[in-house]
Fold Alpha-hydroxy-acid oxidizing protein.
Amino acid sequence: MDTQYIQTKQYEEAARSLVDAAAWCYAESGCGNEQTLRANIAAFEHLYIRPRMLVPMDAPDLSTTVLGTSISLPVMAAPVGFQQLWHPEGERASVQGTGQAQTLYVASSSATTSLEEIAGRVCSPLWFQLYLFEPRSLSAQLVQRAQQAGYQAIVVTVDTPYYGRKERFWRNQYSLPEHIRKANFSDDVDPMVSSTFDWGVFDWLRTLTDLPLIVKGILTAEDTCKAIEHGVAAIVVSNHGGRQLDAALPSIVALPEVVGAARGEVEVYLDGGIRTGTDVFKALASGARAVFIGRSLLWGLAVQGAEGVNQIFAILREELEYAMVLSGCPDVNCITSDLLKECNW
Ligand SMILES: Cc1cc2nc3c(=O)[nH]c(=O)nc-3n(C[C@H](O)[C@H](O)[C@H](O)COP(=O)(O)O)c2cc1C
Ligand SMILES: CCCCC(=O)C(=O)O
């Protein structure tokens, strides 16, 4: 398809008609009554930009670094499982499109392509997302394989002691097709997430790898302090796209508290509800160093494979560039909290 869309939501509309109903419902669903799913997006609507005029610049500089790695814009690919549901090329296409956009890809533990194959395709920096499985040896093996394959950090998802109740998906009595399988595991292994871990898991992981450990799924100042005590390199403020605890805080609402508690000691990123370049702007103004996209990446993948993923990043890049020029920000470091105002109406 050569159609070029100019907003991510146009990709959403196009993807809806292309993707199998079960896969669509699985991706779009939140958990429970989907309060958090809706609020992740709605909360951005309460934030407005206080733009500054007559700040001279050429084209603004959108590039930044995450843990020292350069990315061409402050938007990265979130870990998303089962990507062959949206495109036959699955993760192979999404990592390629992310590389074309010159940004970073996080490979999911639950990918339909093995972590080694993803790494073999890569033209972008790569992090590996780890679920905390029982038996622990399953997680340990993944960490060692990821290090061996050249991944640059481990993103530990801590908001999933159980998989969330995706009730919309369940109510529709959908199930995922048989051929969709977790390629990091052999067919006779069905890895289960575990609710028995405590913060000591980071000390254990540290004995397995020298790679930076990033914690994904933090929403409070208290857990920010715990994470820093246990030596994490960075924090992802996330409620898993509204798919774990329903009624959990919207990510953009939780972000300032985490940034405050982190006191500049570790980098803080955000995911959840990013659909436009102004959403990225608002997250950066609230203290995030960069953001991740989950569902919007899948829409690009479903519509145009690797090129669609590249296009999603291109749309966000252009929208962010406009927001920066129109608010007087020559580079991403200029996007500060004084440029934001909350209006609760
Ligand atoms: C279909 C789907 C699968 C996901 N799989 C994973 C996963 O394997 N590991 C993980 O840590 N997060 C997973 N997530 C959560 C994303 O990493 C991210 O937190 C979320 O999608 C961000 O919200 P957004 O979709 O509004 O951008 C998944 C999300 C979706 C929609
Ligand atoms: C069993 C894989 C779970 C993927 C996931 O994290 C999600 O669906 O939100």
Observations:
- The mean pLDDT is 97.
- Residues 81, 110, 163, 240, 243 surround 2-Ketohexanoic acid (ligand 2) (CB under 6 Å).
